[in-house]
Write a structure and sequence with these properties.
CATH class of the largest domain: Alpha Beta
Strand content: 15-25%
Number of domains: 2
Number of strands: 15
Helix content: 25-40%
CATH superfamily of the largest domain: Medium-chain alcohol dehydrogenases, catalytic domain
Order of helices and strands: EEEHEHEHEEHHEHEHEHEHEHEHEHE
Shape: globular
Structural class: alpha/beta
């Protein structure tokens, strides 16, 4: 085994299959045999050329796989060995910048002032296999990995990434706990993951909003633990929230819709005095019309940005998936082979036929 298949992005909307050399592994690194790679909205953004990456690059930032080779020091440091299944975190922190030293490694920009992570490092940087759209992927010594049960189907185990985001954005950052009311704006994979995480944290009331075209996702939100769903094209969401909360508003709002700016402004109307708003949906750096900042003052609202996921949140996600207590596999809707990477991206982005896509993944062995 001297080469691996890999999907290489050579420019915006340009993918090609290549055979690339498999590197030698030293004492501090490892080689991962990729079982599955989850796909999310940022895959579509990278495909479209909207992310600042240098081409050519191997996409794929949600890797699940089995350790194929590993150096002795890496095995000791990570607590894993050949044959173990692991989930790999996106970011590769430098461990020495101010953010890493301060325990905020998800904000690390220590590698030349830029984020360093799988899917975003160019092919030109040795050893090249920096993305999971491949049969094999290199594991840098600074990687963060988590052991995952081999009993799970790969399509289920790879949900560690969106569920980890749910635990960070809907629980960890807003400090959601028993008795809290939580409103989630957007029923995509991160929104649904937020439902699961908030319910696991003991939230008393969970509300999810979406559009008419999100009917299937809103129905699934109920299955996964939402108490109320609101089609904002059919109902007045502000009025409905007041009805549900006896006029007070919700304790926590988690905004995870993609590109739409209106939910950001609306969040300030939904949240209760003294409540918390977490903004996690990327808007393409667009301005937010009708954003009434005085509501933050008079209601003493805490507004928190969310970027990335922590190890603690990933561990919570993996434990919940392994427990089997929640039918998280219901979120997974599409499998694709490595050769169909472009179709996988287009399907998740809603640009291809094939029904409602919530969570998709590439399966190199398919």
């Amino acid at each position: 085994m001297k080469t691996t298949r890999a999907i290489v992005q050579t420019g915006p909307k340009a993918l090609e299959m290549r055979d690339l050399p498999i590197p030698e592994i030293d004492d501090d690194s490892a080689l991962l045999r990729v079982e599955a790679c989850g796909i999310c909205g940022s895959d579509a953004e990278q495909y479209d050329g909207l992310l600042p990456v240098s081409y050519p690059v191997i996409p794929g930032h949600e890797p699940l796989g089995v350790i194929e080779r590993i150096g002795d020091r890496a095995a000791q440091r990570w607590g894993v060995d050949v044959g173990d299944r692991v989930a790999v975190e996106v970011l590769i922190p430098c461990s020495h910048c101010a953010d890493c030293r301060g325990g905020r490694y998800q904000l690390c920009r220590g590698s030349g002032g830029e984020m360093s992570g799988y899917s975003y490092i160019p092919l030109s940087r040795e050893p090249g296999l920096w993305g999971a759209y491949a049969d094999y992927m290199y594991l840098d010594p600074r990687s963060i990995v988590h052991r995952v049960s081999p009993e799970l189907a790969p399509q289920t185990a790879v949900l560690f990434n969106p569920l980890g985001a749910g635990f960070r954005w809907a629980v960890e950052l807003p400090r959601t706990g028993p008795g809290d009311s939580v409103m989630i704006l957007g029923p995509g994979q991160r929104g649904l993951a937020s439902v699961i995480a908030a319910r696991a944290a003991g939230a008393d009331t969970i509300i999810v909003t979406g559009l008419g075209r999100d009917a299937e996702k809103l129905a699934l939100a109920r299955e996964l633990g939402a108490d109320h769903v609101i089609d904002i094209e059919q109902e007045n969401a502000r009025r409905r929230v007041k009805e549900i909360t006896d006029g007070r508003g919700v304790d926590v709002v988690v905004e995870v819709s993609s590109y739409a700016t209106q939910p950001v402004a609306e969040a300030l109307h939904y949240v209760a005095p003294g409540g918390r708003v977490v903004l996690a949906g990327v808007k393409g750096f667009k301005q937010v019309p009708d954003f009434v900042s005085d509501l933050i003052l008079v209601k003493e609202i805490t507004v928190q940005g969310a970027f990335g996921v922590t190890s603690r949140a990933y561990r919570s996600a993996i434990r919940l998936i392994e427990s089997g207590r929640v039918p998280i596999e219901r979120m997974h809707t599409h499998d694709f082979s490595l050769e169909d990477a472009e179709l996988a991206i287009q399907t998740l982005a809603g640009r291809a036929k094939g029904g409602c896509s919530i969570h998709s993944c590439l399966l190199p062995d398919a």
